[in-house]
Amino acid sequence: MKETLIIAGFGGQGVLSMGKILAYSGVMQGFEVTWMPSYGPEMRGGTANVTVILSDRKISSPIAYEYDTAIILNQQSMDKFEAKVRPGGTLIYDTNGITHHPTRTDIHIYSINATEESAKLGNTKLFNTMILGGYLKVCPVVTMENVKLGLKKSLPERAWKMLPENEKAILHGAEIIHQIR
Amino acid sequence: MAQQQQEVKLMKGNEVIAHAAIRFGCDAYFGYPITPQSEVMETLMELKPWETTGMVVLQAESEISSINMVYGAAATGKRVLTSSSSPGISLMAEGISYIAGAELPCLIVNCQRGGPGLGTIQPSQGDYFQACKGGGHGDYHLIVLAPNSVQEMHDFVKLGLDLAFKYRNPAMILADGAIGQMMEKVVLAPQQPRRTNEEIAAECKEWATYGKPADRKRNVVTSLELQSEAMEQINLRLNAKYRTMEENEVRYEAIECDDADYVLVAFGSSARICSATVEMARAEGLRVGLLRPITLYPFPTRPIAELAKRVKGFLSVELNAGQMVEDVRLAVNGAAPVEHYGRQGGMIYSPDEVLAALKQKLIKA
Fold first, then answer.
1. Is B351 on the interface with A (CB under 8 A)?
2. Considering only the top CATH level, what class is B252-363?
3. Which chain B residues in 311-350 lie under 8 Å from chain A, judged by CB atoms?
4. Who's near A82: CB < 8 A, 6+ residues apart?
């Protein structure tokens, strides 16, 4: 098993922390993992992305040239990463703010409207765990049990009161993702 | 007792430097923040080791202060370290030369970013020359270790300090923004105690200035010697030390080199990328290997010279304009073609780009 994934969007959307939750879930599942962020001024706005690799073998390069899955959360990232999904791979995107929808026909494409759904729930901070739930529905690389452990491990103790809401958001994300092709 | 439970964590390379420094019993860290290594001091400040092991953590007013605090603490036989990124290391260069001249042990971590000047904050390997060929003035060498994983960031804190004390010479961990910012699994060492004053006195009594007891002569820490005859003797002693390091401390990893026609030479984050290139090349039926220097100084000259007798060529793959390639060429000494492939400015090649460069520069030539 090897899953090479990129999560890309705006700084502040929780891109890096979503990657961290997934990476920690992978550790709980017994996988080797790498989490390689774009770092620097992104955290003050602009685009942010993180490459997460989960594997049952030692991971050679943490830098990828194509991805099994791309989770795309803004137009800039769509422009940059749609072409880098390997043929037969998966592209998941949040439709909010997307003006040019993906056009490739050799990959699986899913959309999820987590921006709107998390706003409806009155907590836009749940956006990234909702996306994570959608991803895990499509690519169940780690068990829900290990995701819960990964979520707890990647949050500081003062944020543990948020765990139940985030777990619910993961389940909700799994319900609202749907396949386009 | 049951086998001790291994503590597996997911951490950034920078964070691990902080944990390792505490766990390997360091006495002090002095530093000044700079991207992409600020997490080193941030993590130390969060962990507050001064409340547990008694380790001092101090944010100095500049890199120049940091390295001179390291100089002072090292002179007393304490285990000390600092960390910075490329422009900050340039500021430290004078102090590093003095520490090498005074023959004091310490650890310097350089989490490299692109240059010259303030450059960029993204990863680079542009400081190879600075780390291995001087950096500061005068004839000296650092012991230079190049980690390629978060685990090695941890392990090399101990290795670097052990070698620094063994040779009374400053050691450097030459990492880069990619290794510093990346998270991977890491097994942390169990907490070791800091050495007691008695232990320091026993280990460092020949040279350290921890307070003069009645039963030994005064120890003087200096890099100054105005008599040329005496200075040359110091230089000769340093040279002999460097030759001993070259004899005994070379470390490298050879991956799929036994039957290789072509060998990639790469260190640190580049070596990780190149190990994927080797997998891709082998899948295409190309016999490609990777030689990864772990010590950049002393450089693995001999194993490269041995390979040069039978391989068709070397590609030195570095995130710079071609620096280590000069040492590869010296090792190969004309016995085989040697080419360089690099990216700069914080750009990173992917494994397939390296393979394309290998084909274009060596295989099709």
1. yes
2. alpha beta
3. 348-350
4. A70, A72, A91, A102, A103, A104
